Amino acid sequence: MKSTIGIIMIVLGAAMLIWTGFTYTKKEKVIDAGPVQVSADKEKSVNWPPYAGGILLLGGVVLVASSRKNS
Where are the domains of the chain? Predict the structure, then answer.
């Protein structure tokens, strides 16, 4: 079980190091006056610090190594 979680952490950590965030588009109402509605596309972004991916990667390596040692 520890090795499975460790492998998942390694994959997530590597992905977080490669892609430091993502953007998405959200429709927001600008004007809502009775039957008249105007909406606009707004770009939102989600970013995380690169060290978070490094911590996940390192933690995953430690979990995999410790589960191999105990087996």
Answer: 2-70
